[in-house]
Design a protein that fits this description.
single chain, 3 domains, disordered N terminus, alpha/beta, 23-stranded mixed β-sheet
């Protein structure tokens, strides 16, 4: 082959290679262009998405601000910052500027219920709508005290000159030091073979055995004459009567009160608040020690993991805003109820509700001690105006002490002590974690409409 022929072949080969490469280069170039355009489109789309998300978030924030302002203005005492109206006269506002956005609120409903709808709007016109339901009825624990005194299987013992103005219901024996211990009401004993012994009962007696007692009304018992021995009955004797049904002690929702108290913060004990201070809602990790002559306003539930000790001439008064509602002061250490959670109300401690006769402070002990000399809950001289509850231990009310109602696994009422149960005050007691009459959001009622 000649040199010329070789050169021609090389040229032809290059032409063939170039012919194959050109489409490949065009494909690669096209792919690069498409990829570039896709990246530009993606970047543009991402930018629009980010802007949309940001606007949605800002619109939602604006709507939330409208809800918060509506609740504030419903509870306000004047029209400052609320468009001139406040309280029940406040029905919402229109086009309230908030930064670069605005909100419009509308309030509907009547009585103790309201619904707030809030629309947050951006300059672009994008809007978001949220809605909540409000009430003035605070969260409550449905705990009921239906008797002046109620004891569990540990029973009840009354010393001389003690007086119970109301009904006594016991899961164990009711015994009295002598018949100078008086129950100005009925007495029920639900224990199998249980007894009422050596008491004065001004109304009716209900037990398997009613012994050595003075009964002003009727007596309901098991066998005649063995189970009515030594007893004078002014009314009618009913042998062969059916034993009273067991009546469980009141049930208190400890989790509810734990959570409610913690919402106000947690402090370390021993905690000794100064005179004329306000406590609650609060959790105290350790003891609550009230000094002599210390007067306190209770503005919410108090949870003490140690013990509660009050000084002489001290006082607890529930904040006036509670109105007809009551609240709880709780001594409870869930991890050690044998050693912690005692309540000791000492001499001349006074306890008041909000000023409404239906309002009370309930003191609760979860300590397990059933010893009378070292009870779970002890109430001393002149402590009145409260409800006391030892959920699983002994409750001792001492000389001259008073109370509205007592409940405990075991009850011991010392000389001169008095319990004054007023049914109209306690029949519909509402134990709440906050005052009534304050507008607040109903739990789980928040929803986004748009």
């Amino acid at each position: 082959m000649t040199k010329r022929n070789l050169n021609n072949e090389q040229v032809n080969n290059h032409c063939l290679q170039d012919g194959f490469m050109l489409p490949f280069i065009m494909i690669i170039t096209a792919l690069i262009v498409v990829a570039g355009l896709s990246l530009l489109s993606y970047a543009s789309s991402t930018g629009r998405t980010k802007k949309l998300v940001r606007e949605e978030f800002m619109a939602l924030q604006s709507a939330e601000a409208g809800l918060s302002k509506a609740i504030f203005c419903l509870n306000a005492q004047n029209g400052d910052g609320c468009g001139g109206t406040f309280g029940l006269a406040y029905v919402g506002e229109s086009d309230v500027i908030m930064g670069t956005s605005s909100f419009t609120t509308e309030i509907t409903g009547a009585g103790s219920q309201r619904t707030v709808t809030s629309v947050g709007t951006m300059p672009s016109g994008l809007s978001r709508v949220v809605r909540v339901d409000l009430t003035t009825i605070p969260s409550q624990d449905d705990v009921s005290f239906g008797y002046a005194l109620q004891s569990g299987d540990g029973g009840a013992h009354l010393e001389n000159n003690s007086k119970i103005n109301g009904t006594l219901y016991s899961g164990g024996n009711v015994t009295c030091q002598t018949d100078r211990a008086v129950v100005d009401g009925d007495v029920y004993v639900s224990a199998d073979g249980g007894k009422i012994d050596s008491c004065t009962v001004n109304y009716h007696a209900h037990a398997d055995r009613v012994l050595n007692s003075e009964i002003g009304g009727d007596a309901y018992f098991r066998f005649n004459p063995a189970d009515i021995a030594g007893t004078d009955v002014d009314g009618t004797k009913f042998p062969g009567s059916i034993r009273p049904n067991p009546e469980p002690l009141p049930e208190i929702d400890l989790d509810f009160w734990h959570e409610s108290a913690e919402q106000g913060g947690v402090v370390a004990g021993p905690f000794s608040p100064p005179d004329n201070s306000t406590i609650g809602p609060i959790k105290i990790v350790g003891d609550l020690d009230i000094g002599n002559g210390v007067d306190l306003i209770v503005a919410g539930p108090v949870w003490v993991t140690g013990n509660i000790i009050t000084g002489n001439v001290s006082s607890f008064t529930l904040a006036a805003g509670f109105g007809e509602y009551s609240t709880v002061i709780l001594a409870d250490d869930p991890s050690d109820q044998d050693n912690h959670g005692k309540v000791n109300i000492t001499n001349n401690t006074t306890i008041h509700g909000s000023g409404n006769p239906k309002s009370h402070i309930l003191f609760v002990s979860t300590n397990t001690s059933t010893l009378v000399d070292s009870p779970a809950l002890s109430v001393a001289n002149n402590s009145d105006g409260a409800i006391f509850f030892a959920t699983q231990g002994a409750l001792r009310i001492q000389n001259n002490a008073g109370a509205k109602s007592l409940a405990a696994y075991r009850l011991h009422v010392s000389q001169q002590a008095t319990v004054n149960y007023v049914e109209s005050d306690l029949a519909d007691t509402k134990f709440s974690n906050s005052p009534g009459g304050v507008w607040h959001m109903i739990e789980n009622s928040w929803r986004q409409i748009k």
